[in-house]
Design a protein that fits this description.
By secondary structure, this protein is mainly beta. The protein folds into 2 domains: 2-199, Porin (Beta Barrel), CATH 2.40.160; 220-389, Porin. The protein is 11% helix and 51% strand. It has 5 helices and 16 strands. It has helices spanning 2-15, 70-74, 274-283, 323-330, 337-342, and strands at residues 30-41, 54-64, 79-88, 97-110, 115-128, 147-160, 165-177, 188-199, 220-232, 244-259, 262-273, 295-307, 310-321, 345-354, 365-375, 378-389. The relative contact order is 0.13.
Length: 390
């Protein structure tokens, strides 16, 4: 899971970066948060292990973004934090415990002088002590590897008791998955009620620095990208302990910057899947053009949210060519509506790291990316890529 660790390191470097655009501008002081989550893992399959209530504790070291970086202003001065969670998942024998570390951004909206509504989003990586094991834990169809990605969403409100203490209440969602890197990978989703407290050694920051507007180019720009994904061939539940196959990818697309922090994407992508080729040959699915039929192509639309060197990417695509999956569907007596949609639509999300500041350099940019590709919500593979914007 080196790629997962790399993505986490890039995020941590981004969120907690201490370099200011003006060395005379000081950062806001650190403050500390503790929250307790009580809820339940979502049983999204009939064979999901039986679970009771889960308990997840979260400790955060946070800092108010005050405007010493351009992206602070663009996102209305959120709080950045580094979060550590530890918890039990409602079935200690099968699912075990989870430990995770991830950066987050907390977007706040004041309702009154003391009441603030919050939306906190985080991404990082997690460690499980009881993943699937062929010898002693075959009932854990949820998590197939010790290390997974984690995504979190917290919605709630904060009430300021004083200049130094605030209380929080709300709901939390956690998602854990290894992106089909190792099977089984049903993935774990949890919903919980959350109570928390924040302590500010100094008063909560209320003064922000405003920077001048940026003049950026609005022309369409050509992008070329190559990459490689890896997955373990099989369905969500297995077979497990199989070989891991590379998927080679290339895309050509246009980007258009429509405001300071937003980029629109439109283009095409193709890939060659070694695992698909091995399946076609070993099962004699096609008698000719076996390598060609181990490929797929798609048309996609996408969007990037920019933070200085980093961007968060969301893409939705329509398959133009998907011969193997469609052939396998044609051999079935019945095809569900979901299976039919999976043969047509695909999604991708992840992060890109630009070598130069996206708020000052708009063209001739080299970047690296790390993404999860999914078919109608089911993870397909984890991709690492290298791209260039002309």
């Amino acid at each position: 899971m080196k790629k997962l660790l790399l993505a986490g390191c890039l995020l941590i470097n981004f969120i907690l970066s201490s370099k200011a655009s003006d060395t005379l501008i000081k950062r806001a002081p650190l403050h500390f948060q503790f929250a307790q989550n009580v809820g339940k893992a979502v049983a999204n399959q009939p064979t999901f292990p039986k679970v009771k209530s889960l308990f997840i504790s979260e400790l955060s070291v946070a800092r108010q973004c005050i405007g010493n970086e351009r992206w602070h202003q663009e996102y209305n001065f959120p709080e950045s934090a580094l979060n550590v969670i530890y918890g039990t998942l409602g079935n200690k024998e099968v699912l075990g415990d989870v430990f995770a570390i991830f950066p987050s951004l907390n977007f706040e909206k004041k309702s009154s002088s003391r009441l603030i509504f919050q939306k906190k989003i985080g991404f990082g990586f997690a460690y499980f002590n009881r993943p699937y094991n062929l010898l002693n834990n075959t009932t854990n169809i949820v998590i197939g590897s010790r290390v997974t990605a984690v995504a979190s969403l917290v919605l709630g409100a904060s009430y300021q008791l004083s200049d130094y203490i605030s209380l929080q209440a709300g709901g939390a969602y956690y998602h854990f998955s290894n992106a089909h890197y190792q099977l089984p990978n049903l993935g774990l989703n949890s919903l919980s009620f959350r109570l928390g407290i924040s302590y500010y050694p100094a008063k909560k920051q209320s003064n922000f620095i405003k920077q001048n507007a940026i003049n950026y180019t609005k022309k369409f720009r050509l992008n070329l990208k190559i990459g490689m994904g890896i997955n373990e061939r099989g369905g969500t539940f297995g077979p497990s302990n199989g070989p891991k196959y590379p998927i080679y990818l290339a895309s050509i697309f246009a980007t258009k910057r429509y405001d300071t922090k937003g980029i629109f994407q439109i283009g095409v992508e193709g890939n060659y899947n070694i695992g698909a080729y091995d399946y076609i040959v070993s099962n004699e699915v096609f008698s000719s053009q076996q390598k060609l039929k181990s490929t797929t192509s798609l048309f996609f639309l996408g969007h990037e949210y920019l933070w200085k060197h980093l961007s968060f990417v969301l893409q939705g695509g329509v398959f133009l060519y998907n011969p193997l999956y469609r052939e396998l569907l044609s051999q079935q007596k019945t095809i569900t509506f979901k299976q039919h949609l999976k043969s047509l639509f695909t999604t991708k999300f992840g992060f890109q790291y630009y070598l130069k500041n996206t708020y000052s350099k708009f063209t001739k940019q080299l970047y690296i990316g790390s993404y999860v590709k999914a078919n109608l919500g089911q993870a397909d593979y984890w991709e690492n890529s290298l791209g260039f914007c002309f």
